[in-house]
Amino acid sequence: MAEQTLKAYCHDLVDFNAFCANLGVSPENAEEEDLRLFIGDMSLESKAALSINRALSTLRGFYRYLVRFGYRKDNPAESVRNVRAPRNIPIFLWEDEMAEFASLPQKQGILWAARDQALILVLYTAGLRIGEALALQLGDIKADYHEARVIGKGDKERTVFFSEEGRQAILAYLPERAAKLHKDSDVEVDELFISMRGRPLSTVGAWWIITEYAKTSKNHQNVHPHSLRHSYATHLINNGCDIRVVQELLGHKNLSTTQVYTHTNIEHLKDVYKNAHPHGRHSRFNPSGQQTDGGVDEEGLLGEKKMRSEKNE
Fold it and tell me: Is 173 a catalytic residue?
């Protein structure tokens, strides 16, 4: 289990313990109604649906433990249903935008260009989570630098692949990495990505690097490390890759997690339709091919004049 996941579970239990103290009950003896009050309190605090559902998952696990070892007979969290979470379309870049973003380190020259371009292309061309990329060690990468072994969520191992651009970026970075370690570090570092001080690159550091480049371009200001993984999956789906293959490449346990990228493609198709189809563009068009002066014709086409009047209401 990832360290960040453990921290999140601990945080949930600490919050629940404090809530129970205010109720005057112990967490071990809390009942279903107490849990519902806790969830309601989180909602009043405007906690995200995903955070609320994670807290419920934490409590289910906590009470399963108590039942298993005989501390209580029932699990009050089992009957409390998850709240409905909105399905947000992930932030991603189209292929030409991704190519532009990957070129920013060489163009901007603001940080460590070779490392940063390698980081961007490893995240994108292999579809890695930021934690997976930062945990990547030299020994995990095959000798030809086209593929690597990564350990994902739930300690699940999978093989990922680098494009030729990604491979070349890694090869360009490695001599600079070696020189940096020889000059500034007195310890052996196995991780592929290192900081300017010759230490393993941290998650905070990697986020900062990606967002600093995003700030330099008005077209990419919302980009973060996970956007590159989203872009990877979106491009695979849009180019016809089977969704179960994408699921395997991403290391998703459930297919439903991967299916969000099919919705991304649908949203793109909607935009194409709105921009290209005469009805989508609200153009003055009728089935006979004649240009009209607006209004609603016999076929029910919405005219430009009515659209304008409705906007003014």
Answer: no
